[in-house]
Amino acid sequence: VLQEEGKSRLHQTQEEVEQVKMIMLDNKKKAEERSDNLKDLELQAEVLREKSKVFERTTKKLKQQKEMSNKKTKIIIIFSVVAGLIILGLIIFITKFAG
């Protein structure tokens, strides 16, 4: 009977060891999956960083183009007003002294 109890305890202990082993293997597998997921996230983060740098350069370039366009527009408007005033002045001058 004692020998059977010993075998029974040994068998129970072996089952518990097997259960712990299975749990540890499952934990190892999950840890590896998390590691892979973290590597994927790091890669995606790096891609996003690069895209944000490109976006920032593009927006700066576009901003400079818009500022240049606005300056050109202001110069054209100022030139047009000055030219209009000169023409108006010439018309007034010619009508005063011609008539």
Give the biggest sheet: none
Structure classification: mainly alpha
How far the N terminus sits from the C terminus, by CA atoms, comes to: 143 Å
Low-confidence stretches: none
Percent of residues in β-strands: under 5%
Q: Tally the helices: what do you get?
A: 1
Q: Please, could you describe this protein's structure?
A:
It is found in: Endomembrane system. The protein has 99 residues and is mainly α. It has one helix and no strands. It has one helix spanning 2-98. The protein is rod-shaped, with a radius of gyration of 42 Å. The model has no long low-confidence stretch (mean pLDDT 93).
Characteristic key phrases:
99 residues, rod-shaped, coiled coil, Synaptobrevin-like, membrane
Layout of strands and helices, then pairs:
Blueprint lengths: L1 H97 L1
What's a quick, concise take on this entry?
The protein has 99 residues and is mainly alpha-helical. The protein has one helix spanning 2-98.
